[in-house]
Amino acid sequence: MKSFGSIWKIALSLVVAAAMFTLVINIVRMPVAAETHSYTAEFTDASGLHQDADVRVRGVRVGKVSTIELKRENDQSVAAVGFTLDKRYGIVAGSRLAVKYQALTGVRYVDVENPAEAYASKNLIVNIPTSMTQPSFDVTVLFNGLQPVLATLKPEELNTFTANAVTYLSGDGSGLGPMLDSIHKLTDFVSNRQDMISTLMHNLADVAATLGGKSKSLIQILEWLNLPVDAALSVLDEFRKSSLFGPEFTAPVVRLLNNVGFKWGNSLDGGLDKAFTNIDRAVEAFKLVPVMWDNLPPPSQSGQPRPCSKGHAQLPGDMDVLLNGQRVVICNR
What we know:
single chain, eight-stranded mixed sheet, membrane, Mce_C
């Protein structure tokens, strides 16, 4: 009796496990209920894409990847991806296909851009060449050399940055602002921002080289951004000198000049004007030296009375009698 109960429990567990497994498989596959067309697209790189991956239009699932095969064409190996697409949409000459991803560690899917909704069957392109597709790429290339920065980030922050970068690289012009904002947030976690930005710019250029969309524009933007970054890296020592001889140096110099007498607020023009005026006066004074020298009388002999500059005064005879022959010299005024 006990063995029968154990067998019953095991059988029930197997049934539940099988039901759960079937449910998971159906969720993963999620077949499209609408009628579909079959297409084959060629990609130069289909990394991360697998069978039963989604085919989406504007983020809505409208088909499934049915097959992925490697084939040789025009001396080049390409991935031939077979997929189904809701008949509501058609692949025409203006349509483009791209392999995109849902998250940094998530699965890839095929994104259909500019599908035709009102189309004629003769305009459908069933075999889509590589000129109409954008390949997949290894998103981890973006983070080469940035391991210390990645260690400080949350997974959702990393996913946001990656999504913003790939959105712009894939051709969405609205992704530039969010991408630059994400770069700014990444630099908040590092001390040496110049090296970090330089590494990130190099990685973005490598990724852009494998994509279409606005990649050419991004490469030009990266070159422009690299100009100030490279210039800053080449003159880092000048920033140190600016710190040494900046406010820390000039503040004591200003205090020293203030103590010497050069007060803050004094007119520099007025001071220079007075200085040059005094110099002119000194020069004029030196010009008078020869005239003054010529008018100076020769020095008197020792024991002799000093000569009169305006001559001797003529004294009356009564004064000579009064002085009684003493050697007294009276000068004219």
